[in-house]
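A reminder from the course coordinator: this example appears on the midterm review sheet, so study it carefully.

Given structure:
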């Protein structure tokens, strides 16, 4: 029986597509300020190629490629400051997720296990869902970062449950599904369609980034081996509820 449900924040509880759109705008602005006049569509095409060939880390790779290591470091500090000050400007609660969390919490204990800055805690309070979580394992607070299995071990210890009594719900196979499986947790790969995540691009560059996401997205990188395959998949809050019930019933994938 599933006693605990561990959830990622980005693209599971809250949509972070606006965050990545902002980061690419900031990178574009930094290039222009350096006199590097690379058309934004070309920058996004390089992003897509990196996702196809290397997977994650595309933004930092491109920033270091064009700005150097010091430039990347400065840009990371500048963008982190903006995200800390305006977290909810760059994150929206996924449609239906508040209702799903409320329902799940009546039968199971909930916790966050996420690579997130500490400001995520206040944001979850502000959008009204923090009350559903028994604890938050935020990487910046716990000082452990996915895919390090120790973050999941920390959460299991805090929950006081065995691995088979917990399920990890995350949008990335590499950061969420694979490391959780190595410890014996059940896993649900949650990857909602972009158009159903409640984000409407507000500018031309945001629109172009959204279109680039539709061509290549880290959340859509499939398992590379059978050992990485999730127990179940869900693409909406309602599908997440059904997936949890299937895991409890012992139904096959």
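Designed residues:
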């Amino acid at each position: 029986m599933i006693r605990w449900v561990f959830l990622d924040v980005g693209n599971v509880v809250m949509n972070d597509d606006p965050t990545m759109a902002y980061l690419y705008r900031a990178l574009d602005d930094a290039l222009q300020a350096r006199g590097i006049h690379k058309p934004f569509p070309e920058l996004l095409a390089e992003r897509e190629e990196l996702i196809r060939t290397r997977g994650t880390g595309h933004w930092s790779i491109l920033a270091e490629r064009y700005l150097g290591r010091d430039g990347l470091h400065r840009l990371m500090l500048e963008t982190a400051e903006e995200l800390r000050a305006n977290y909810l400007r760059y994150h929206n609660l996924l449609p239906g997720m508040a209702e799903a969390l409320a329902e799940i919490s009546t039968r199971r204990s909930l916790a966050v296990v996420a690579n997130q800055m500490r400001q995520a805690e206040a944001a979850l309070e502000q959008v009204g869902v923090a009350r559903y979580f028994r604890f938050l394992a935020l990487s910046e607070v716990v000082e452990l970062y996915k895919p390090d299995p120790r973050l999941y071990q920390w959460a299991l210890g805090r929950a006081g449950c065995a691995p088979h009594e917990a399920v990890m719900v995350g949008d990335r196979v590499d950061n969420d599904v694979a490391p959780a499986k190595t410890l014996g947790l059940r896993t649900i790969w949650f990857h909602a369609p972009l158009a159903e995540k409640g984000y409407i691009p507000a500018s031309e560059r945001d629109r172009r980034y959204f279109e680039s996401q539709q061509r290549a997205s880290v959340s859509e990188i499939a398992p590379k081996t059978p050992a990485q395959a999730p127990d179940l998949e869900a693409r909406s809050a309602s599908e997440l509820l059904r997936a949890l019930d299937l895991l409890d019933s012992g139904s096959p994938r």
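The first strand starts at residue 4 and ends at 7. Residues 58-85 form the longest helix (28 residues).
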